[in-house]
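Question (not urgent): is this output format expected?
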Amino acid sequence: MKTLKIYIFALMMLVLSLCCSAEEIYIRVGLSFGKSAVTRSSFSFANGFQIGYLGADDTFSPTMFFASNSIYAEKTASGTFKFYDANSNGCLFETESGKSPVICPQGQDRTSAYTLYSGIKYPYYMLLTPNDDASHNVINLVESEQYIKGVLPSEIYPSWHEQALRAAAVATRTFTHQSLGTKHKAYGVDLCKTTCCQVYSGISKCVYSTNKATDDTNGQVIVYNDKLITAVYHAISGGVTESAAGAWGSNPDGYPYLTVVQTPFEKYEELSYGKWSRFITDAELAALIASSSYSSTLSGNIESIKVDDDTPGYLNNMTITDTSGNSVTLKTSSQINSLFSKYARSANFTITKMYLPSDNKQNLTVVTAMGKETIDTSKPVHYLTSDGEKTAQGVCGGYYIDGRGYGHGVGLSQYGSQYAANAGYTYSEILGIYYPGTTITDLSNVK
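Got this back:
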């Protein structure tokens, strides 16, 4: 067995090069926790790693340096953590009972030295915390501005206009600091790495353009009445945004900056996900209802779909009634989007009852001048179009949706910001359009 070399660095040198600065804000990003907690976590490095613990002020106190570049960790029955060399399976280190270890890659530059975990390169520190069972959580402890750099390339195209990238950086930073510790606090995590919070890819996707946009706007956030806003964003609005009240039923007074905004500069028709349509058959609609939370109220046979507000834009107050007279009203656009998500990319659509020629043969009830009549579609059916009279063998009933946009539609439109930047708008002007009534300030000014 090859002897593993263990190097102990002078503590003073390590503290000077690796401890968290008092001016830096560190974020705990959950990589594996809760239902995704692990019983074994594996890590790789380029030039070895260091291990230690966090102090009360989140200062990293390194204990040892190891030359191993591939390791794994497990929690023992006694509550300690054991670290093993992945090649020899030899135990390198066992932590003190009840303490959560921190590991970090050896290297002078914390933004380029990395720990490889689950195929992704992460900067700074990895914190391992125990659970009550045999599992443990893996958390990336990362400086906040570096976290922004790790999010941007996954949320916006790095090749886009620099003003659009800056707008995204400020919105991302605002969303980050406003939402810290609001969702996963029970696990000791500030944010997760998924769309639940924001997609975070460590340094694996970091590139010059998005790093520069972060640096160019360093510390800048969006405020309303001197408080951080909820800077939500989406892909494509479809020429008009949705309000927080319309999307989620929020109190309009609580989010006055998340309101309906017309964005004529967004050329959504050019985008594959910007303009779309779909014919949903009655059978497909029945399947949607059956797989939804409304299945206990509605039968599969839908009599009508009515939208109370016919204002163009995102749909609200949609009432669906079945043939037995049972009905359900979807009050928000998010509820509508959720139900139709298999066929619609947003709730910014119109919906119309329609019958189309089909190879399917079924009885069809229609309304004529003589009242309701039932037609046997196994025989030829004549119908009128703009091109004149046509004949079909079989008719299929359903609903035609004609839609625009992609996402919930609230706040900043990512593609809209790109069109605005190309039209000559600056990042501050773009943010002012999508979050009306807000201003940009430095994070240090926010209480």
